[in-house]
Design brief:
The complex is a heterodimer of chains A (258) and B (94). Chain A has 258 residues and is an alpha/beta fold. Chain A is built from six helices and eight strands, in the order βββαβααβαββαβα. The termini of chain A are close together. A four-stranded antiparallel β-sheet of chain B has the order 1-2-3-4. Chain B has one domain. The chains are: A alpha/beta (258), B alpha+beta (94). Chains A and B meet through α2 of A and β2 and β3 of B.
């Protein structure tokens, strides 16, 4: 941390690219990377329920700023194009994206990152809200990610009544297959997930001897990183981001200059 | 979508958006974290036109109590207008 010096060069490029998604569909993604030959680790970002929005494009650049090849695919592509929150509304009305589709999308984005000549061969997956749930799910159902960050993902624990053809298995039931270390950040005032559900998930991780860190923040609810929302909590967000950087640095081998 | 709670209904009517009035054919009602309302949880209502495109949408995020109050107001107006029999006064108001 805090390795940046005022006499250092830095630069990045950030742009919309196209990558394969689930079943080979070509989809839009926002890709940001530091300038230079690297090698850099990669991070796939899974956007939240409000859509493939400005916060996610900013956060993709934030990861590049910290030394990552960062890609955020638009997982709502099957709902067409328009303003992000209008497309998110269509996704919401449709009950979201099937888990199988997200797993397919992330597998393709992981392959894209690792194919880049600047890649150091390692990659993580990061998600918030529904994307946090999906990040954990993807880290269980695929091999190839080296670390996963789940920020306040709801419905990792699901009742039998919540299971549908789109969500046939509760992510917690895949815990035994988790393929990489997990960082989880949660707010104790959140009801989706509740602290009790987070504790239940933690028990399952312990049961299978998984490597994980869970942090439950007091006086924080859902989405406490979102600086433009009423749920933003400055102190908890700063600490949470520091935990993200330390975790990824440990498992992905970045040369973070921030 | 953190809650996964969504109820959809087919509707018939019109809504007014930035570009004027348009026909509505779907109502989507979710209980989830709001994007704009200053509340931890909200009832999110999207009135949509499936055929006209995603920008044809009337959206509201209501606190749970506001949503209950709205439901009461809708039901009360229906009760006053149509009575328990429903629809009996439609012709008389033309």
């Amino acid at each position: 941390m805090h390795k940046y010096r005022t006499d250092m060069y830095e630069g990045m490029i950030a742009e919309t690219v196209t990558v394969p998604g689930h079943n080979g569909t070509i989809i839009n993604a926002y890709f940001a990377r530091p300038l230079g030959s690297g090698p850099f680790p990669g991070v796939v970002l899974i956007h939240h329920a409000p859509g493939w929005d400005e916060w996610y494009r900013e956060t993709t650049r934030k990861f590049a700023h910290h030394g990552y090849l960062a890609i955020s695919p638009n997982i709502y592509y099957q709902f067409g194009h328009g303003a992000p929150e209008d497309i998110a509304a269509k996704a919401r009305a449709a009950g979201g994206v099937p888990d199988d589709d997200v797993v397919g999308d992330m597998t393709e984005s992981l392959g894209y990152l690792k194919s880049l000549p600047q890649s150091n061969g390692k990659a993580g997956v990061f998600g918030t809200c529904s994307g946090g749930r999906q990040a954990f799910l993807v880290a269980c159902r695929t091999k190839g990610f080296d670390a996963v960050v789940d920020c306040w993902g709801g419905r990792v624990v699901m009742s039998q009544q919540e299971l549908t053809p789109k969500y046939p298995v509760a992510p917690i039931d895949y815990t035994k297959d988790l393929s990489c270390p997990l960082l989880g950040l949660f707010g104790e005032e959140d009801q989706f997930p509740t602290p009790q559900q987070v504790a239940q998930h933690e028990q399952e991780l312990k049961k299978y001897g998984k490597t994980y860190e869970f942090h439950m923040y007091p006086k924080a609810g859902h989405g406490f990183f979102y600086y433009d929302k009423s749920g933003y909590r400055q102190e908890q967000a700063v600490d949470g981001w520091n935990k993200v950087w330390a975790f990824f640095e440990k498992y992905l081998g970045t040369t973070d200059k921030r | 979508m953190c809650t996964g709670i969504v109820e959809n209904a087919r509707v018939s009517g019109n809504g007014k958006g930035p570009n004027g009035w348009f026909p509505l054919d779907q109502a989507s009602v979710s209980y989830d974290h709001p994007d704009h309302a200053r509340a931890e949880r909200a009832v999110i209502i999207d009135l949509l036109s499936e055929t006209a495109g995603p920008e044809y949408r009337i959206a509201v995020e209501l606190t749970p109590q506001s949503a209950r109050d709205l439901v009461r107001a809708i039901l009360a107006s229906l009760s006053r207008g149509e009575g328990d029999g429903g629809g009996a006064r439609n012709e008389s108001v033309q």
